[in-house]
Specification:
The chain has a single domain, classed as Aldolase class I (TIM Barrel), CATH 3.20.20. The protein has twelve helices and eight strands. The protein is globular. The longest helix has 18 residues, at 180-197. An eight-stranded parallel beta barrel has the order 1-2-3-4-5-6-7-8, surrounded by five helices. 43% of the residues lie in helices and 15% in strands. Bound molecules: glyceraldehyde-3-phosphate. Glyceraldehyde-3-phosphate is lined by residues 9, 95, 167, 172-173, 211-214, 232-236. Pathway: Carbohydrate degradation; glycolysis; D-glyceraldehyde 3-phosphate from glycerone phosphate: step 1/1; Carbohydrate biosynthesis; gluconeogenesis. This is Triosephosphate isomerase. The active site is at residues 95, 167.
Length: 253
């Protein structure tokens, strides 16, 4: 039985005071970590403050990206050492918005995944196809290639610890959710690829999230699917009430 994991990705939303207020409001209401994992991935600017605000709560704090180097002349970037040092637990790697607007590639995703593990961070690795790739019937081959690249060189034990997020690009922020069956089918393809690359046991342990217009009204159906172990949520994670409803669904799954 894989433990559900619901992660909010706030993207470039909220001010520092709004972020602090949100975490103070939800932290006492987050389900126990023995039942599920609950994460907020916030803008880097707020991370130190949110780690402190969440310290007595099961809520964990994540970053939305990072550089793969330990340190260096990389203006504007944040390193895995810096994230780990302030108590961040998770980091999203290879989100489609990073791939599209900030030149993140399968190769840099792989380097960042290795760097995350070297410094004790849990990577949430995003993969997913464009609408054109889906319409051309290439969804399976696209996500298999992304998964193989992202995991290259990792041990089976590391793969069992990471989180993969399947996010069809055409469903992000559009209100169009993949049907639960379609999302489950692709998550099953991802699990099958991991079984080929590693073992059935590793594939069985791996947690796979679905992301793309997840909201309180559709999360239960998604979490009811065999291969979907959680959700990576943008818009619906911004309001405390809807985030808590998502966690409740995770806790009941
Ligand atoms: O990381 C989250 C995803 O990009 C999904 O965003 P969304 O829930 O606003 O569609």
């Amino acid at each position: 039985m894989r433990k559900p994991i619901i992660a909010g990705n706030w993207k470039m939303y909220k001010t520092a005071s709004e972020a602090k207020q949100f975490v103070e409001q939800v932290s006492g209401l987050v389900p126990d970590a023995s039942k599920m994992d609950s994460v907020i991935c916030a803008p880097s600017l707020f991370l130190p403050q949110l780690v402190v605000s969440a310290e007595n709560s099961p809520l964990r704090i994540g970053a939305q990206t990072m550089h793969e180097a330990v340190e260096g002349a990389f203006t504007g970037e944040i390193s895995p050492v810096q994230l780990a040092d302030i108590g961040v637990d998770y980091v999203i790697i290879g989100h489609s918005e990073r791939r599209q607007y900030f030149n993140e590639t399968d190769d840099s995703v792989n380097k960042k995944v290795h760097a995350a593990f070297e410094h004790g961070l849990t990577p949430i690795v995003c993969v997913g196809e464009t609408l054109a790739q889906r319409q051309d019937g290439n969804t399976g081959s696209v996500v298999e290639k992304q998964v193989a690249h992202a995991l290259n060189g990792l041990s089976g034990q590391q793969v069992e610890k990471l989180v993969l997020a399947y996010e069809p690009i055409w469903a992000i922020g559009t209100g169009k959710t993949a049907t639960a069956e379609d999302a489950n089918e692709v998550c099953g393809i991802i699990r099958g690829k991991v079984a080929d690359l590693y073992s059935e046991q590793t594939a069985d342990q791996l947690r796979i999230q679905y992301g793309g217009s997840v909201k309180p009204s559709n999360i239960e159906e998604l979490l009811g699917m065999q291969h979907i172990d959680g959700a990576l949520v943008g818009g619906a994670s911004l309001e405390a009430e809807s985030f808590l409803q998502l966690l409740e669904a995770g806790n009941d799954a």
